[in-house]
Design goal:
It is a single chain. This protein has about 375 residues and is of the alpha+beta class. About 15% of the residues lie in helices and about 30% in strands. Strands 1, 2, 3, 4, 5, 6, 7, 8, 13, 14, 16, 17 and 22 form a 13-stranded mixed beta sheet that branches. The chain has a five-stranded mixed beta sheet with strand order 9-26-25-20-21, with no helix packed on it.
């Protein structure tokens, strides 16, 4: 099984960089060379990621180091998030949303097939797996009401995504070519873009999501190097119409199986093959106006959904915005999340050689 990298702390000791293999943690700093060791002693991956690909390769070459049981250490957010951008790169997800909210129009808005649509999220609320998520408050206008109300969301949702972690920064005013975009990606995590759908429906026009998304985003504690996934890049369906030149590449996606669990029950299975826009195209688009990448940037793929009802990566789609409640094995039904519900995202390659660290989160009551 391939290694993934994060930050761990044995009892009574400061946090430092380590590598996870199954249920063990390798203390890679204990055997690192003198140039690499200070970067691994830090309580964050950022210094290592900023050092660039040569340092990454030195780290990846370490596969024998003192081991600790994963159960015996605390894990922390693996890197300090610089900027957080979430895209909208799954065709089936975007089309489902269009069918729900614009039933008499084309499901996809005209720009969707020409560029990876995205929004800027809030880096300060990205949390490591296992962190409870308090039900957020905000304004919403319920159907039939005579005005908006302020209070806890009644439509708390999850979004099953991949997150791409930027290591090497880019230069300001120098767009990153799509052909070189992946050189800036240190690794990949699972990501849950928690969403308050009723707040979102009221606030998103004309500038897009704000409070409906900014309250929490959860990621896995261990970052899988992008290098480990190179062998799992597969061709994907042609992009039609062909993208403009700065976004043009042979269509591809990662072959990663993904699942969404609610209350210990798998309620959806999908695949990263269902992403229409690649990570490389997302980066090329983000930087095309001269904006720069920074070490620690987190780029979400957007909800990943497939063509079948059981392959939809959000409760919004699984319950069709509440019109078709999801029935669990216990007999309970859900349209959106209730307080106390626990959600777990899992993923990995079909052959089991690469496992993405789970993303687990429990819904806590509104904090006010």
């Amino acid at each position: 099984m391939s290694l993934a990298y994060g930050v761990f702390a044995p009892a009574g000791e400061p946090p430092r960089v380590g590598a996870r293999r199954g249920d063990r943690v390798l203390d890679v700093g204990a055997v690192a060379g003198t140039a690499l060791a200070p970067l691994l002693a830090a309580g964050s991956l950022n210094g290592l990621m900023a050092a660039g690909p040569a340092a990454w390769q030195e780290l990846f070459a370490i596969d024998d180091a003192p081991e600790l049981a994963l159960a015996d250490v605390a894990v922390e957010l693996p890197f300090a998030v610089a900027d957080y951008v979430d895209f909208y790169s799954s065709l089936e997800h975007a089309a489902n949303v269009g069918r729900m909210f614009r039933p008499d129009a084309e499901p996809l808005l005209p720009n969707w097939r020409y560029l990876p649509v995205g929004y800027h999220g809030r880096a300060g609320t990205v949390a490591v797996s296992g962190t409870d998520v308090a039900r957020p408050r905000g304004q919403a206008w319920a159907s039939g009401a005579d005005g908006p109300r302020y209070g806890p969301t009644r439509a708390l949702d999850v979004e099953l995504e991949l997150g791409f972690v930027i290591g090497a920064p880019s230069r300001a005013e120098e767009p990153v070519p799509v052909s070189r975009a992946l050189e800036h990606v240190f690794g990949v995590v699972l990501l849950n873009d928690w969403s308050a759908r009723d707040i979102q429906a009221w606030e998103y026009q004309p500038l897009g999501p704000f409070l409906a998304k900014s309250f929490a985003t959860s990621i896995g504690a261990w970052v899988v190097p992008a290098q480990s996934l190179e062998a799992y890049r597969v061709p994907s369906a042609p992009q039609e119409p062909e993208p403009l030149e700065h976004l043009r590449e042979e269509p591809w996606a990662y072959d990663l199986d993904l699942s969404l669990e609610l209350g210990g029950e798998v309620v959806a299975r999908t695949s990263a093959r269902n992403l229409y826009w690649s990570a490389a195209q997302q980066i090329a688009h983000l930087t095309s106006n001269g904006a720069r990448l920074r070490t620690g940037d987190l780029l979400g793929s957007g909800t990943i959904s497939g063509p079948e009802p059981g392959s939809r990566g959000s409760l919004l789609e699984l319950s069709w915005n509440g019109a078709e409640p999801l029935t669990l094995a216990s007999g309970e039904t859900r349209t959106f999340l209730q307080d106390g519900d626990e959600v777990v995202l899992r993923g990995g390659t079909p052959d089991g050689a690469v496992e993405l660290a789970e993303v687990r989160g429990r819904v806590a009551p509104s904090s006010r």
